[in-house]
Amino acid sequence: MRAMASGAAAPEAVVHTFPSPTRVLAFVRRWSVEAEGPVALRAIRNRLRRLGAELIILSDTGVWSLRADDELQRSDRAMASAAILHGMRTRGDVIIVIDGAGIVRFAHHGTDSLATSLARALPTTLDRLP
């Protein structure tokens, strides 16, 4: 599977697995729950609330889901889609925003690690949305 690009349709498996109106998929291999902390998670929730989005985190430590008003949860429902998306085989970390119509609105495919903290990486990414 090729890397998803802005304006392209997201894979059906992703659209149907994640029912949120807007989905932010973060492939951050070195990310961990312990690295964020409560202040950082609160900042992420605020960003998600403004966007009306769900964040799906895919890392070496597992797959996690976070919504603006929910606790961070390990997510089993994402495993099938994660396997599909990992077919992109990018070398670095990736952040993809998919809207409710299943269209990729933003895609950052890095050649290295974005950041160990999503609270630092997401504002830069989400502020560039059209």
The secondary-structure element order is HEHEEEHEEH
Number of domains: 1
Rounded to an integer in angstroms, the radius of gyration calculated over CA atoms is 13 Å
What oligomerization state is this entry in?
A: single chain
Task: Give keywords.
130 residues; alpha+beta; Glutaredoxin; six-stranded mixed beta sheet; 6 strands; 32% helix; globular
Q: What is the topological layout?
A:
Blueprint: H1 12-17, E1 22-27, H2 33-51, E2 53-59, E3 62-67, E4 73-74, H3 79-85, E5 94-98, E6 104-109, H4 118-126
Parallel strand pairs: 1-2
Antiparallel strand pairs: 1-5, 2-3, 3-4, 5-6
Helix pairs in contact: 2-4
Description:
- This protein has 130 residues and is α+β, with helices and mostly antiparallel strands.
- It has one domain (12-126): Glutaredoxin, CATH 3.40.30.
- The protein has helices at residues 12-17, 33-51, 79-85, 118-126; strands spanning 22-27, 53-59, 62-67, 73-74, 94-98, 104-109.
- A six-stranded mixed β-sheet has the order 4-3-2-1-5-6, with helices on one face.
- Helix 2 (33-51) packs parallel to helix 4 (118-126).
- The longest helix has 19 residues, at 33-51.
- The protein is globular and about 35 Å long.
- The chain starts with 11 loop residues before the first helix and ends with a helix.
